[in-house]
Amino acid sequence: MNDPQRFSSARPVKIEIRNPRIIIAIDGHSGCGKSTTAKKVASHLGYIYVDTGAMYRAVTLYFLRNHISFTDLPAIDEALATISISFQFNPETNGNEIHLNGVNVENEIRKLEIANAVPVVSAIPAVRRMMVAIQQKLGRNRGIVMDGRDIGTKVFPEAELKIFMTADALIRAERRQLELQQKGEVVALAEILENIRKRDHLDTTRAESPLRQASDAELLDTSFMTIDEQVRWVVRACENRIELVTEPALTDLQYEG
Hints:
single chain, alpha/beta, Rossmann fold, 5-stranded parallel β-sheet, 3-stranded antiparallel β-sheet, 44% helix, 18% strand, Cytidylate_kin, kinase, P-loop_NTPase, ATP-binding, ATP binding
């Protein structure tokens, strides 16, 4: 027979979760290394990585290919109803690549034409609502690293770890130019810098989910950091955050038997 005297309410039960799966939200300016860093962090932790910028680029690609005016709201709504976006693993690149209506468009969305137009498309409320809904669905099981511009403020305001990345605009332009050169594209540095500054302005001033640092986000300036240094910084921040994650008390009784 149970002895009620063997229970005490002196200490609550507190069980620590050794390896909890959390949401890591990485926001910041274009060209800071968000996507590359987030991808490597996810691989290190065994988490899912989602490049939300690629999602907006895919929508932009669809609009341009189908001559959808960025101001024709009825046409935009009709187009969004026909768009399907998914990520599929490519063993050759060892990464998830974006598919638009079943077709791999990973390379097409990285062109400067798309980069120039995506700030306008991503500011369209209907587009953002659709993308946010997809992103929240992808992260419902946690264990995810997601980068973008409104992840910590709009998509996952409850994320356990939020990071806001920034870097000098000229350094970001130089990085972007090198990236394009490696893909065989030659673009003047001045043109890339203008695109980055324009995008920064549009991202931070748009009415719908503007780019801003969440009040509880950690700031990471990557101007003089390598990708490996960025990854180590984020992994350490994640490990520190995980140590703080515990399961709430299950009962007010502590068994003393």
